[in-house]
Protein: DUF1559 domain-containing protein
Organism: Aporhodopirellula aestuarii
Amino acid sequence: MKRQRFRGFTLVELLVVIAIIGVLVGLLLPAVQAAREAARRMSCSNNFKQVGLGIHNYHSAYNQLPRHKGGTSGTPTDWTDSSALANHEELSFLVGLMPFIEGQALWEQIANPLDADANGSVDFPAMGPTPDLSGPATDGSDYTPWFTEIPTLRCPSDPGTGLPSFGRTNYAACLGDSPFRGAAGGTDAMLRRPSGPALQTRASMRGAFVPRQTMKFRDILDGLANTIIAGEIATDLGDRDTRTNPGSGTGDISTPNQPSVSNCKNSSRIDPLRPQFWKSSFAGVLTSTGAGNARGYRWADGNPSFTVMNTMLPPNGPTCITVADPAVSPNATIRHSTGMLPPSSRHQGGCHVLMGDGAVKFITDSIEAGGTERWPVHLSGTSTTPPSANVPGSPSPYGLWGALGTRAASEVIDFEL
């Protein structure tokens, strides 16, 4: 009987097979990573769409958009002061959306007086304190709703979590293409509504949301499908990222010609070797005024650095907060100030925006956004020469990007995004 002989692998053949497997794995891993990011990006888009549906359902219920910087006024001598008795109309549009994005249980806590430390006394009134009194406080009397993390408001691609943030959000209201009156709207320091701030707000706050003002879909004359009502923002990771840790002191907002976007892109502040980060020598970052003041760190706070974006600089551009505006409040700090606040994301090449009709679009960083030397539209604007015109009612000086942020400037969008 003839015995059958079996031939084994040689060492060379084994090494060749291992090398081939290694090459295949090396080719496969980037594809796996890309697939994971694609899934995260789709989940982010779905979360944003839920926010859009919530806004539409809110409008159907109340015939208006949720107010940005709404809430209880109390009797403040200065709305920028902290208070446990009222929120000084500092709440973001996301607070009113809670019942419409599966947040009914949290809304019940917010809409009713809250006994924070279960000692039998009512520590906080309905609609809560000012959002800077989020907690957690060492005495246990913190207002838990303001620092509750809400999954619907988070993009899975953003890894930021935990303190020093008090409840992060990756979605922010669009105020249009100008920073003027972006923090206070038409109110003065005592939350009165005199004619001067009202005129300034009407001239410059041209987005779907206007601080401390009731807005409706009927106000969006350019068409819901042509108007951005909210944008995605990345939250800060504790570094000097220009997108999430705004630079401050980049112009006096009370001086009409100061807040051109070129001030924000000042090369003396940005690291030339890492253009997405501020220089280590630049001390004027917002977190220098408090670790909890970075971008997207307070979902319930309507102040611009937390829950506002505008269409001046294109997506993922540097963010800048102007110096405190004494015309808004004598005690205003940088935290209560407005500025150039483009949307941003951890996705490659752009970010999501929410259109008025509920559609979520991905806008690339390279969208046409005009010239950085142009000044925004405002009440005291004097230029009437396009494309740098900035008198009230002018088309946006920031190109297609600026036009998408205005609700009633009559710009023509002649192609599908």
